[in-house]
Amino acid sequence: MSRNRLRQRLAVLVGSAILMLGTVGSAAAAPQTRTIGLAYEGETTTDYSFDVSGVCDTCIPDAFKVLLGAGSWAYGATATGHVNHVSWQATTSTELGFDDVGLRQGRTLGLSDVLTPNGGTIVATGKIEGSAGLLNDPTGGTNFGQSGVSDDIDKGATWTAACAMPLPGDSPRTCVSNTQEIELAAKTVAGALLGRLDIVLSIHIRLEFTLSSDGIIAARALTFTGGSGSLNRILTFTGSTPSTLADPVALPCTQPAGSEIVYGVAAQPYPSTGSMAGRGTLHAAAVIVPIVGPDIPVVGANITTITAPGHDLAVTLTGNAGSATLGTLAANNIPPTPDAGGGAGHEYSGDQGTPIVFDGSGSSSPCGFPTLRWDFSDGGVAFGKNPQHAFQGVGTYSGLLTATDVTGLSATQTFSVVVANLGPVTEAGPSITAAWGRPVAFNGSATDPGTDDQATLVYAWDFGDGTPNATGGSSAIHAYTAPGTYSATFTAWDRHGSFSSDQRIVTIRARDVSLGSVGDTAATFDTAARLRASLVDEFGQAVNGRTVTFDVATVVGSSGSAVTGSSGLASTAWTPSIEAATYGITASFTGDSLYTAGSGSGNVAIARKATTTTYTGTLTGGANKTVTLSATLIDATGTPLAGRTITFKLGTQTTSALTSAGGVASVQLKLAQKNGTYPLTATWTPAGSDAARYLGSAASATFKLQAR
User: Could you give the CA distance from residue 113 to residue 35 in angstroms, rounded to a whole number?
Assistant: First the structure.
C-alpha cells in the first residue's frame, strides 16, 4: 500500500474516533417509561341450567288453611334458572421501561415490559322459567300437589361480575357476580276474620366464575419512520400479575438515523377456560294484612339453598392494538473493530505462489459484521472474512485491514506476512526409445511457484551416460553411443538456490539392418562366381566389419561367408557344384550389440558348362586295315573330362571309347569299306548326372580310305 493511501486511511480512522468521542460525550442516559393500554372483549353462548324450586309450608297459617279446604296447604314454585350468554370485557396496560441511551444505531435497547391486567367485567344473561301456586295434600301430610290454577314464571336476569384477565400465576381466578333479587311469584289468599294473606316468592341468585389462562400474548413490532421493515416478536406474559418480560431489541444500523422509533403492540387472541356456577337462595315471605291495624308478618325465610353444579365455560377475548413512540434513533458512533487474525502479532506465514488464507472473522461492529478490505504491500487487494492471496516473491510483506460498517465508520489494523521460498517444479518429459547414435531431443520444463523467480531459473541436463552435462536452456540434443537404458535427469535452480529434479527414461536400442544385392544372378556349373551382399542399417548407413553368411538352397551347410567393408559390401568366391537350375540365395547377419540380426534373399540361375571335343586320331587308312581313332574331351575351363563316352562314326562304321584321366578317348577300328573319302565325327553326349551339368560337344573330320 502506498504511503498516501495509508495516510488517507489513518485520517479516516482518527476522524471516526473524534466523532465517536464527541457523540459519546454529548449523550446523557435517562430512564424512560411508556404505557400502552389494550382493550379486550369476547362472548360465548351457554346452555347452563340450575334448579330454583321450593315449597313454603309455613307461609299459610292454619286459620287460612281452614278456609282453603281439607288437608294441608302450602305455597311453592317449580322453576329452572338458565344462563345462555356470557360476555367479557377487560383491559391491560403494558409499561415499557428503558434507558434512552440505547436509542442508537447498533445498540441493544434493553426494554422491560411490565404487563398488568386491569379491571374487566363479565356480563351473563338468562332467565328464570317455571310456575308457582297453592299446593295441597288432602291427607294432611307434606306430599303436596298442585291445587288450582298455577301462575307462570318467566323472569329475565342479568349478572355482572368484575373480573380481570388472569395470568397463569393468578389462575384459577374466581369472579363473583352481583346477587340478583328477582320476584318470581306473589299470591293473595282469600281473607279471613284476621284479614287477607299475601305470599311472595323471590330468588336471590349470583354467578361464580372460575377462570384460568396460559398467559397473555401480544405481537410486538418496532417500526422506524422513514425506514423500512419492522422488528417483530411475539411476547408471552406468564407468571402472576404484574408480569415482567425482558424485551431487548437490537436497533439495526440500516434504519435511518433521526427516525422516530414506534413500539407497537397488537393483542393476540386470549383463550380462557373454566366454569361458572349458580349460588343463592329461594326466599318466601307471608304477611297478614288485617282489616284494622298494622301488617302481621307470618314468615320471612329462605326456604331453599341453591348450590348448582359448575358448568364448563370457555371465553376467547380479542383485543386491539396500541403503540408508543420511544424516541429518536441516534446515529451510530462506535467504529468497527478490525481483527486481522494471525495471532497476537497479526503475522502470517506461507510459501510463495501458494494462496495464504487470511482470517478476519474476529472483526466486529455494533452494526453487524463489517465489510473487510485487505490491502497487501505487493499491490494485491482482497475482500471478505476469509480471503486468499498468493505472494509471488519471497520475503516479509505488510498489509492493512480496513473494516467499514454500514453507517460508513471505519477502522484499520496492520498485519505482516512472511513468505518462504519454494523450489521450482520440474518436468523432464515422457520416456522415449531411440536408436543409438541418433540425436535425441530433451525438452524439459520448470515452473517456479513464484512468478517473480520464473525468469531467473537456470537448467542442466545429465544424460546418464557419463558424458558432460548440458547447461543453459531447458532443451538439449544428445546422441547415445551404445544401446541401453539411461536415466536422464533434468534440474532447475531458482535465484535463491532452491532446486528440484525430474528424470526421464531413455531406452537406446540397436539399429535394424537390411541385406540387399545378394550374389551373382547368373553362374555356370563348376565355374568361378561370387556371392555378394550389401549390409546397411535402417538409416541407410553402411555397416562394416560384420560377417555375412551365404546359403544357397539345396546345398547342405553354409556356402560361404565374408566380412563387410567400409561400404557395407561383403563378397566371397563361389564355384557352383550343383546342377543347372535356378536357386535361392540367402545372406544372413546374426546381429550384435549395435545391430539387430537381418537377412536378405535373391536367386541365381546356374547354367550347364560348355565342353570341347577335339579329334586327335588318324585320318587315313587302307581297306581292311586297322586304324586308331582318338579324341580329347575338356570343359570350358580346359579341365579334361574322364570316364565319358566318345562315339566315333566313320562313314557307316561306328565305335566308342571312354575318356581317360586326361580326357582322351582312343579305340581301334578295322576299316570295312571301299576306298573313298568318308566323313568322320567324334561326339560326346552328356548322360546321367552330366546331362544337368554339361553341354555336349562334337568334332568332325574327313577320312580317306584308299589302297596303298
Answer: 9
Dihedral angle over CA of 551, 554, 557, 559, nearest 10: -40
Reduced to 3 states, what is the DSSP secondary structure of residue 304? Answer: strand
**pLDDT per position as a tens digit, 390-425:** 999 999 999 999 999 999 999 999 999 999 999 999
Written out in words, the top-level CATH class of the domain with range 3-24+337-420 is mainly beta
- How far apart (Å, rounded) are the C-alpha atoms in residues 447 and 344? 35
Specify the amino acid at residue 448.
Answer: D
Burial 273-287 (b: 16+ CB within 10 A, else e): bbbbbbbbbbbbbbb
**Separation CA 36–CA 324 (nearest Å):** 7
Buried-state track 417-433, b at ≥16 Cβ within 10 A, e below 16: bebebbbbebbbbeeee
**CA 97/CA 21 separation, integer angstroms:** 27
Spatial CA neighbour of 264 closest among 313, 323, 305, 219 = 323
CATH classification (class only), 425-509: mainly beta
pTM here is: 0.58
State the pLDDT confidence band at 556, using cuts at 50, 70 and 90. Answer: low
Q: What is the pLDDT of residues 423-457, one digit of tens each?
A: 999 999 999 999 999 999 999 999 999 998 999 99
Closest CA to 223 of 249, 266, 267, 261: 261
Q: Are 363 and 388 in contact (CB under 8 A)?
A: no
Contacts of 41 (CB under 8 A, 6+ apart): 87, 88, 89, 90, 317, 318, 319
Domain 513-607 falls in which CATH fold?
Immunoglobulin-like (2.60.40)
- Strand 296-307 relative to strand 270-289: parallel, antiparallel, unpaired? antiparallel
Q: How far is residue 533's CA from residue 514's CA, in Å, rounded to a whole number? A: 10
Farthest-apart Cα atoms in the chain, separation: 244
What DSSP line would sit under 266-303, residue for residue?
EEPPEEEEEEEEEEEEEEEEEEEE-SSSS-EEEEEEEE
pLDDT band at 708 (very low <50, low <70, confident <90, very high): low
For cell 416478536, name the residue: 233
SS3 label, residue 501: strand
- CB neighbour list of residue 292: distance below 8 Å, 6 or more residues apart: none
User: What is the structure's pLDDT at 149?
Assistant: 80
Confidence grade of residue 70 (pLDDT, cut at 50, 70, 90)? confident
Counted residue by residue, the chain has a size of 708
C-beta of residue 353 within 8 angstroms of C-beta of residue 390: yes
| Local structure of 159: helix, strand or coil | strand
Distances (CA, A) of 27 to 32, 140, 253: 15, 95, 18
- Equal CATH topology for 425-509 and 611-705: yes
218-232: b or e for each residue (b if 16 or more CB lie within 10 Å)?
bebbbbbeebeeebe
pLDDT 10s digits, 94-152: 999 999 999 999 999 999 999 999 999 999 999 999 999 999 999 888 898 888 788 99
Category of 540 on φ-ψ map: left (φ > 0), alpha (ψ -120 to 50) or beta = left
DSSP letter string, 87-151: EEEEEEEEEEEEEGGG-BTT-EEEEEEEEEEEEEEEEEEEEEEEEEEEEEETTSSS--EE-SPPE
What pLDDT does residue 667 have?
97
Amino acid, single-letter form, for residue 418: V
pLDDT at 657 over 60: yes
What CATH code is assigned to 611-705? 2.60.40.10
Q: Where are the domains of the chain?
A: 3-24+337-420, 31-327, 425-509, 513-607, 611-705
The CA distance from 586 to 531, in Å, is 10
